[in-house]
Amino acid sequence: MKQTILGAGGAVGIEVARALTAYTHDIRLVGRNPKKVNASDEVFKADLTNRDQVFHAVAGSGIVYLTLGFEYSTRVWKTQWPALIRNVIDACLEHQAKLVFFDNAYAIGGNHVNHITEDTPFRPSSQKGQVRAEVDEMLLQSIAKHHLQALIARAPDIFGDIKVNSILMHLVYDNLVRGEKAVWLCNADLVHSIGYTPELAKGTVMLGNTADAYNQIWNLPVDQQRITGKEWIQLFAQALDKNDAFDVLPAALVKELGVDNQIMHELFEMLYQYDRDYFFDSSKFNQRFNYTPISHAQAVQETVRRLA
């Protein structure tokens, strides 16, 4: 059975392709300029903002993984995400393919992030969160009303040796490697869950290849040890044999920097994830699969070793 990755060139898509070889070697990688991850991969060039090309990319697939990441821009997200989800849903329905949507937790806002489970209600407190809540609802409605076979595989922030879109890697790892102080946002003494990309990808394909996992939301496997921003910095400093000194960027400074820095501008509305405890609970997954996620410390050490 062919398993297809839409958005195969990003950090998550690459790791999903690697993890899929435990289940199949009939893997199709779809993107603007897809490159093989495994020797037997099929590469399929497509513009996934084009409805017809989405349908062509999905045709012949048994399972479709949506791991695409658009530019980190509220403006882009508002126009591109709803259209993409509608097209992917329609293509999967027409071609009778199952859909696995790799999602973040942006639809959950405010103090609900203190303890995120699959039952935590969608209460977005950001514009990007509103977009994610909209597309999640579209998918859940298609499951309920149109019998789409699909699941939402949800992750917190990510880190790993593929550093794209990882705040932890850019503000902590990169700074430490340069001999500079690490940087954290808002308050380094608060709990902050972060997922290890290879582990998240492994969980995603486990769900995709488990028949009774469909038609529901899953939080992907993350070490359940509650550690703070300061402790994340200490783990990386120890692994790199660097000083664990760090600076904290308060919200006001992030807003000021956002005047000239687009990433900081877009990040400002997401600071509710850093100014209070943020804990991502994956106990549903861990219990269902009798699974123990890789520890934070081991994941950090593995990341540093891969980048050495």
TrEMBL record:
This is NAD(P)H-binding protein. Residues 5-213 form the NAD-dependent epimerase/dehydratase domain. The lineage of its organism: Bacteria, Pseudomonadati, Bacteroidota, Chitinophagia, Chitinophagales. Coiled coil: none annotated. It comes from the Bacteria.
